[in-house]
Design goal:
It is built from 17 helices and three strands. The chain is mainly alpha-helical and about 425 residues long. A three-stranded antiparallel beta sheet has the order 2-1-3, sandwiched between helices. The chain is globular.
C-alpha cells in the first residue's frame, strides 16, 4: 500500500493524481450538499425507525431533509428491478443483456430513467408523509421536484467520477455518505462511555471506549480478510503443458468467498425499507404497527426476512456475475478444462456446486456483519446511532478495496507501458 502511495506522487503519474483530486472534490460537493436543506422544510427531529439505514447511507441527508435526502437509493431499486427483468422475464431486456457493451449502455440508460421516476415517486411520498396533510399539492410537487433533482445530480456526479475520477462513482457516493456519519458516531460513543461524574467511573469508561475502538477495527480487519479470500479452481489448456511451465505457471480461476460483495445487503436493505416508506405515506396506524412489528429488521420476524433476502440476492447476484454455463462454454472453446472434470455439462455442474458452497459462506458472512449492530444495540445502552460492524461498514470496506485495486491496476498498467516503450 505504501509503495502504491509513493508511486502516485511521482512525476509520471500526474494525470492519475488529477483523477484522484477530481474524485475528492466531487465527494466534497456531495458532503456539502447534505447540509443544504430543501427550502421551506425543517430537520426531522422524530425517530426515523426503519428509515435509519437509508439516512446512514446518505450521510444524514434524510434527517436534515436536504436536497440529497433520497441519495442514490432510487437508482439502486431500479437496478434490482432491471436485473430481475433480464432473467428472461421480458425478452427485450434479456436480448440487451446479450449485446455486450452496447446492450449494457442501453440498460444503464433505462435504469437511470426508471431511477429518476422512482425518485419522484419517493420524493412525493416523503413530502406527503413528513409535512403532513397541512400542505397543498403544489407544495408536495415542489419538494418532490427538488428531491428528484438532487438524485439526478448525484447520478450525474457519479458518472463524472467514474469517467474522470477513480473508482465507481455511485459506490463512492454511498461510501462517502456513510463515512460522513462515522466521526459523530465515535463522538457519541465517547460521550456515552466516558463522560460521567466520578473519576473512578470515568477511568472505566475510557477503558470501555478503547475496547469499543479495538473491536471496531478488529471487525474491519476481519471484513478485509473475508473479502480478499478466494477459492482457486485449477485450469489446464490442451496446448500447454504443466511440466513445461511448472506449477507456478498453472492457470486457475479465482472465485471469491463473497463474490457478490455488498450488493445483496444493499438490495435487501432497499427492499425492506419500501414498507417503511409506504407506512409513512399512508399514515395508517394499523399498517404502521404491522411494519414496525413484523417488517423492521430490528424485530425477530423482520430480521429473518432480512436474512432470507440477503441469501436470495447473494445467490442471484453471484450466478449473474459468474455464469457457470457461459464459463464452461468459453473454457471448452479455448481448449481448456478443469483437471479431473469432463468438459461441457460436468464442468458446468462442478462450477455451480463450488459457487453454491462458497455463496453459503459468503451470505453467512454478510448476515453476521448485518446482524452484529442489531445484537449490539439490544445488549448495550448505547443509542442506535452507535453500532459495531453493520451494512454501512461493509459497504465502506468493499468499495475501498475495489477502488484501491483499480488504482493499483492503473499504476501497474502504466509501469508496463513505460517498460515496453524503453524496449
Amino acid at each position: 500500500m505504501f509503495k502504491t502511495m509513493k508511486q502516485l506522487f511521482t512525476s509520471t503519474n500526474k494525470d492519475l493524481r488529477h483523477r484522484i483530486y477530481f474524485t475528492l472534490v466531487s465527494l466534497l460537493i456531495f458532503i456539502l450538499g447534505i447540509s443544504i436543506r430543501v427550502p421551506g422544510t425543517e430537520d426531522l427531529s422524530s425517530n426515523l425507525g426503519f428509515l435509519e439505514l437509508l439516512n446512514t447511507m446518505g450521510g444524514g441527508a434524510l434527517r436534515n431533509f436536504s436536497i440529497f435526502a433520497l441519495g442514490v437509493m432510487p437508482y439502486i431499486t431500479a437496478s434490482i428491478i432491471v436485473q430481475l427483468l433480464q432473467m428472461d422475464i421480458i425478452p427485450y431486456f434479456a436480448e440487451l443483456s446479450k449485446q455486450g457493451p452496447t446492450g449494457r449502455q442501453k440498460i444503464n440508460q433505462i435504469t437511470r430513467y426508471i431511477g429518476i421516476a422512482f425518485a419522484f415517486i419517493e420524493g412525493y411520498a416523503f413530502a406527503f408523509s413528513f409535512i403532513g396533510k397541512s400542505g397543498d399539492p403544489m407544495e408536495y410537487l415542489y419538494i418532490a421536484t427538488v428531491l428528484t433533482a438532487g438524485t439526478a445530480f448525484l447520478l450525474w456526479l457519479g458518472d463524472q467520477i467514474t469517467q474522470k475520477g477513480v473508482g465507481n462513482g455511485i459506490s463512492l457516493i454511498i461510501m462517502a455518505g456513510i463515512i460522513a456519519t462515522l466521526p459523530q458516531m465515535f463522538v457519541t460513543a465517547f460521550q456515552n462511555l466516558v463522560t460521567f461524574d466520578t473519576v473512578q467511573i470515568t477511568t472505566f469508561g475510557i477503558v470501555k471506549f478503547i475496547l469499543f475502538v479495538i473491536v471496531y477495527f478488529a471487525i474491519v480487519i476481519g471484513m478485509i480478510f473475508v473479502q480478499e479470500s478466494e477459492r482457486r479452481i485449477p485450469i489446464q489448456y490442451a496446448n500447454k503443458s504443466t511440466a513445461t511451465f511448472g506449477k507456478a505457471g498453472q492457470s486457475f480461476m479465482p472465485i471469491k468467498i463473497n463474490t457478490a460483495g455488498v450488493v445483496p445487503v444493499i438490495f435487501a436493505s432497499s427492499l425492506i425499507s419500501i414498507p417503511g416508506i409506504l407506512a409513512k405515506v399512508l399514515n395508517n396506524e394499523t399498517f404502521s404497527m404491522i411494519v414496525s412489528k413484523y417488517l423492521s429488521y430490528t424485530t425477530p420476524i423482520g430480521f429473518i426476512i432480512y436474512v432470507l433476502l440477503i441469501f436470495l440476492f447473494a445467490y442471484f447476484y453471484t450466478f449473474i456475475q459468474l455464469k457457470p454455463e457461459e464459463f464452461s462454454k468459453n473454457l471448452q472453446d479455448n481448449g481448456g478444462y478443469i483437471p479431473g472434470v469432463r468438459p461441457g455439462g460436468d464442468t458446468k455442474k462442478y462450477v455451480s456446486r463450488v459457487l453454491s458452497r462458497l455463496t453459503v459462506l459468503g451470505a453467512l458472512f454478510l448476515v453476521i456483519i448485518a446482524g452484529i449492530p442489531i445484537i449490539f444495540s439490544n445488549f448495550t445502552s448505547l443509542p442506535t446511532t452507535v453500532s459495531i460492524g453493520g451494512t454501512g461498514l461493509l459497504i465502506v470496506v468493499g468499495v475501498a478495496l475495489e477502488t484501491y485495486k483499480q488504482l493499483e491496476g492503473s499504476l501497474l498498467a502504466r509501469g508496463y507501458k513505460r517498460s515496453y516503450r524503453r524496449k
